[in-house]
Amino acid sequence: MTPAPRLRVLAAMSGGVDSAVAAARAAEAGHDVTGVHLALSANPQSFRTGARGCCTIEDSRDARRAADVIGIPFYIWDMAERFRAEVVDDFVAEYRAGRTPNPCLRCNEKIKFAALLDKALALGFDAVCTGHYATIVTGPDGRRELHRASDQTKDQSYVLGVLDERQLAHALFPLGDTLTTKDEIRAEAERRGLAVAAKPDSHDICFIADGDTRGFLANRLGAAEGDILDEDGNRVGSHDGATGFTIGQRKGLRIGRPAPDGRPRYVLDISPVNNTVTVGPAEALEIAELTAIRPRWCGTPPTGPGAYTAQLRAHGEEVPVTAEAEGDELRVRFERPVRGVAPGQAVVLYDGTRVVGSGTIAATTRARAGTAG
């Protein structure tokens, strides 16, 4: 058997346990590994202690200590301005437009596998290594394919669905093809002498210091009182800023009177133009199809309509769909209605465990009476 080639690998080290173990495994596999921590905040003291996403001084120190233990060179690269422009400003702009973005996908697309990868390749590195749980498989045609992690309970392929063929050719995910639990990853880190073994995970948005997304948006977009309407346009309550709501939201609506049938109501639509939020019953959330824009393909784009499964959230279920790419749009029809689909979210298509590609949801068609959302 021909041994795997020795690569020059740049390991993105966030300061957490996953990226530290990934870097250690890459080094143990015989690659020439250099660790790098991305400084993504111009004022890291303002970001939450222990946050995932390279956001605190503590994280940078943890990453440096891990690199020292592994025995690899280590650097800190300042990408705060790029991160602010590509991720934070985009996040605010999407909410201003009434959409619900996913900043983790945006960061993977624009920072870790664009800005970071481009710089790595310019410096002579062969690949970028991260602690994501996903698998890269070489297909029958010799091309690299992105697949779900072996342990699908930890799978993170959804947030990597924005990677294109070129980026996959230079990606390395050492954690994705092993059936290990998170406790076992922590135990491995401890065996390797990595102090981050017991460091807690964070699943919040890394650049929102206190986890208060509504307050974060109000500070940047302002808070203006508006109406909460039912499906017939009747005023049923008020709010202090439409940008603080998401499609499918039930709690925190401050509706003055109950629905005539006594059932709970959910956010169906957000209109930043007239600062209104429309609410209605759960069944009105059911979506029959959607249109996504800016499709990105993890390999050769599909031709013609095809049967796939689709995932609409990072930890959401797979649902069977028929999908077809038409120029710069992706049309997806669900075999059964799904709920809580919001413009701005990503739809990721799968063929078995293989990630086919993704798109940003631009419009939806409701199952009930075929109304658009």
Describe the structure.
The chain starts with 7 loop residues before the first strand and ends in a 7-residue tail after the last strand. Helices cover 23% and strands 29% of the residues. With 373 residues, it is α/β, with parallel strands linked by helices. It is built from 7 helices and 17 strands. Mean pLDDT is 88; it is low at 46-54. The chain has helices at residues 17-28, 57-70, 80-96, 103-122, 165-168, 182-191, 213-221; strands spanning 8-12, 32-39, 74-78, 127-129, 134-138, 144-148, 171-172, 226-229, 235-239, 266-271, 276-280, 287-297, 306-311, 319-326, 329-338, 346-351, 354-366.
Q: In summary, what is this structure?
A:
The protein is α/β, with parallel strands linked by helices and 373 residues long. It has 7 helices and 17 strands.
